[in-house]
Amino acid sequence: SAASRRVLVVDDDVAICSYFSQLLQEQGYAVNTASDGEAALAAVQRHRPDLITMDLSMPVMDGRTAIRRLRADPVLKDIPIMVISAIPGFDSAGGDLAMPKPLDEHRFIENIRILLHDEPAGQRRLEFLVLYEEGRAQAVIPESFSAKCKVDFCSTAQLAERVRAGFEGMVAVPVDLLGKVDIELLHASPALRVMIMPVSDSGENVIPLPVLAGGTLNEGNEP
């Protein structure tokens, strides 16, 4: 339950930290804050949060460096990280999911629940529409994924048509296709959520497992 979950909010803007903290505390989450990447690493060691929200542009140590440090630690590497940034064209920077500023409060809380596998009653499997570019390999889908989430693939050329046809769920956008996708179109639809997919060292697009393991969508969102 949310009451047993702890979130570390990392941002150099005190007002944003306070804002995110209030949103999370209203949902029952315990919250700690840090103002830069170095302070975040210390806070993770001290509090062992269940999830981290991470800004990218910060003094002392930026978010990208902090994420690399966390991923290199065998004890801390599996903590889910949600990147939240106002940097134009930013990517997930090694995090599990990315959201832009200004924040969509509803999607923020939904994504927190997905990453923490918090599943309120009355839910169905989350539907994923995974984008690819024609002529290139599609994303790698973990074997355990299909039992928990419904996955379909869509080329970038067909995306607008699928949105107009009424698709509801998560649109997974490989980070190297960001420049070829109308993100504003996706964010304009209340029935859609957007996940930025990182690219692995091998160059493959791999849907991050922490996002998928508990993927669900409220029954109230069904057509």
Decide which structural class fits the backbone.
alpha/beta
> What integer is the average pLDDT?
78
Strand order of the largest sheet: 2-1-3-4-5
The overall strand count is 11
**Number of helices in the DSSP assignment:** 7
Query: What is the overall silhouette?
Result: globular
Uncertain spans, ≥5 residues at pLDDT below 50? 142-147, 205-223
Helix share of residues? 25-40%
* Element-level helix/strand string: EHEHEHEEHEEEHEHEHE
Head-to-tail CA distance between termini? 28 Å
Residues in β-strands, percent: 15-25%
What is the rounded Rg? 17 Å
Largest sheet: 5 strands, parallel
Q: Please, could you describe this protein's structure?
A:
The chain is of the alpha/beta class and 223 residues long. The protein has seven helices and eleven strands. The longest helix is centred in the N-terminal third of the chain and has 13 residues.
